[in-house]
Amino acid sequence: MDKEFCRRGSSIIVVGLGSPIMCDDAVGLRISERIESMDLPDVDCAQEAVGGLDILPVIHGYRFAVIVDAIQTMQYEPGTVMLYSESDFDGVIAGSSCHDVNLPTAMKIGRQMDPEIMPEEVRFVAIEVADIRTMSEKMTPPVEEAVESGADAVLHLINEFRKKGSSNRNP
Questions:
Q1: For the whole model, what pTM was predicted?
Q2: Separation between Cα atoms, residue 167 and residue 138, nearest integer Å
Q3: CATH number of 12-169
Q4: What is the rounded CA–CA span in Å between residue 53 and residue 105?
Q5: What is the pLDDT of residues 93-121, one digit of tens each?
């Protein structure tokens, strides 16, 4: 039985996460806004300041989702763009309190609770950041420069999703 997707008119959602006033934490929002300005058919965009389980209603009903967010690993230069799939985070899924659930744990909970309305595939675009503690509407220069590369990474994933979507429909 096919899942009922596209309840919102589009099969793909790009969700930029972050805070517009916390320096580099705005990078996910900016990349999502960039994609939104392209007015792509079959792609919805959202900019959200949510995390944990609050992400689930945003992505419910879409066939594919791209979540764009800042990451601070201290292992890469600020502005480095990284692509992840859900399975890349298997080691960080926690059985912690539902009041402080990370995104990978939220995805797992969503798949257990409402598998029929969760996206078939969720991918993550993460941008290594330098400063997420300073209150500022300006990002650091290397992260600002990464907005274009981050948008290119999102477009790459959208094209992958479109190929999967069309190949699944043809016998």
A1: 0.89
A2: 42
A3: 3.40.50.1450
A4: 8
A5: 454 444 468 888 889 899 999 999 999 99
